Amino acid sequence: MAGPLDIGFSLISQPWALLVLSLLFVGIYVKYNSGPRFANPKNLPLPPGPKPLPIIGNALDVPTEQMGQRLKELTEKYGDVVYLDALGQPMIILGSHEAASELLDKRSANYSDRMPSVMRLISGWEWTFVLMPYGLPWRRRRKELHQFFHPNAVAQYQPLQQRECLKFLTKLLEKPETFLHQVRQSFASTIMRISYGVEVAEENDPYVTAVEEGVATFNLAFVPGAFLVETFPSLMRIPSWLPGGGFKRTAAAWQKIAHNMRDAPFEKTMESMANGTAEPSIATVMMENAMNRKDADLAEERIYARDVSALAYAAGADTTISTVQTFFMAMACYPEVQKKARAELDAVVGPNRLPTWEDRDSLPYIAAIAKESMRWQSVVPLGVPHRSLADDEYKGYYIPAGSACIANLWAFSRDPKVYPDPETFNPERFLKDGQINPAVQDPNTFVFGYGRRICPGRHFAEASLFIMISSILHTLNIDQATDEHGNPITPKAEMTYGVISYPKDFPCSIKPRSAQAQTLIYAGLKA
């Protein structure tokens, strides 16, 4: 399968390569000669940044790997707002939470758009509001999703979250070596019930597989700079069968996967509605509401219901999956954290029940572990770039309309002025006198995004994370695995690269904390 930047320059002597190069240079020429670069009526300076080269600008300064770390180096050198010109595309790198909050939160009316994306249209993700330009289709989908995931609505899901957590703990007792997979299975099962009213199979469920395959393509397709056609749409003129047109073949394969993720479980739920066996869900509620309105266009409402149901998985679930997997890594590396957590759980919850969301205010150390799990390995390194709709001014600098604005969340989580010794997993950084310290920045203020583009599923994700982490610590011991010689295997704090990062596979030892804890799990599942 063709990959990012598949342009085939190594075969430049071939006739077709001349077509590729011609289209590329036409694209560059158009970007630089289709009118004035910037209006800039006040003649303000652009934000500082590395000196651009002729034609290609700062294209060589835009990293293609370890982007969070490389962009952090740029903002450390030039300041918390850096300007890059990548092949004619203005880019604003935001290196501090202060700058990101000022522009993307406080000025969200101007910074809620998304960059135009060819890959969104050809890879099957035209329906996701995460990438949609700011406008009515985006607002409608977000409004619908919000009604199912605002704080009051999320409370109705807590019994389901507790139940799925018990199933998860049971699987860890029976198959502890599959813990990374079981994290995914648990959250997929929960979301499938909420979105479609579907009870998924414990293993190899086709709908869970469809969702995981779909999210995997998203994670590859929309990393900034992954596909050159995003910068030069003229490359769409290259036939897919020519070298250099491989991105089209990739996108066509991904389109089938993304549409299957969106369509398959929804069609199953529509069949269940037709025969009267559907369980309540986002899909059924939206369709029933539409059918009860005399003026509703049912064909259009069906599209909205289909899209919003599929979007629910992206509303915090995948971020939470990565955070829980990161939590396991941290517990294997920091046993003293587990010890302190259990002392708090024993004092507040006791041995005869599992913790619930209602215990959260009484379990500040557990809440701090959840926050530190969000911060420690930067689950969403860069998020999805915002786009400025109009010219703007910030701290005396000119920000052109159409700029790609990238908030370096990876850097925010590692700011030593905010989080001293940032590479260490230390929940106590969020505590003062045994309580959550409001003076320390909560990672949730940036992990879930900014402004009108903030993740609508953040409240659901926060509840899921607390329920899962507190229940695991109350019932299980997490230790480092050992090799064939009995030596401990310390997990490496390494993450995959994508829009969402996940811990690379690592082993750990998971055992019941006690016979009583094991009984508590099984008894809770039978209740």
TrEMBL record:
<dbReference type="InterPro" id="IPR002401">
    <property type="entry name" value="Cyt_P450_E_grp-I"/>
</dbReference>
<protein>
    <submittedName>
        <fullName>CyP450 monooxygenase</fullName>
    </submittedName>
</protein>
<dbReference type="GO" id="GO:0020037">
    <property type="term" value="F:heme binding"/>
</dbReference>
<dbReference type="InterPro" id="IPR001128">
    <property type="entry name" value="Cyt_P450"/>
</dbReference>
<feature type="transmembrane region" description="Helical">
    <location>
        <begin position="12"/>
        <end position="32"/>
    </location>
</feature>
<keyword id="KW-0479">Metal-binding</keyword>
<keyword id="KW-0560">Oxidoreductase</keyword>
<comment type="similarity">
    <text>Belongs to the cytochrome P450 family.</text>
</comment>
<dbReference type="GO" id="GO:0016020">
    <property type="term" value="C:membrane"/>
</dbReference>
<dbReference type="InterPro" id="IPR017972">
    <property type="entry name" value="Cyt_P450_CS"/>
</dbReference>
<keyword id="KW-0503">Monooxygenase</keyword>
<dbReference type="GO" id="GO:0005506">
    <property type="term" value="F:iron ion binding"/>
</dbReference>
<keyword id="KW-0472">Membrane</keyword>
<comment type="pathway">
    <text>Secondary metabolite biosynthesis.</text>
</comment>
<feature type="binding site" description="axial binding residue">
    <location>
        <position position="455"/>
    </location>
    <ligand>
        <name>heme</name>
    </ligand>
</feature>
<keyword id="KW-0408">Iron</keyword>
<dbReference type="GO" id="GO:0004497">
    <property type="term" value="F:monooxygenase activity"/>
</dbReference>
<dbReference type="GO" id="GO:0016705">
    <property type="term" value="F:oxidoreductase activity, acting on paired donors, with incorporation or reduction of molecular oxygen"/>
</dbReference>
<dbReference type="InterPro" id="IPR050364">
    <property type="entry name" value="Cytochrome_P450_fung"/>
</dbReference>
<dbReference type="InterPro" id="IPR036396">
    <property type="entry name" value="Cyt_P450_sf"/>
</dbReference>
<keyword id="KW-1133">Transmembrane helix</keyword>
<dbReference type="Pfam" id="PF00067">
    <property type="entry name" value="p450"/>
</dbReference>
<keyword id="KW-0812">Transmembrane</keyword>
<keyword id="KW-0349">Heme</keyword>
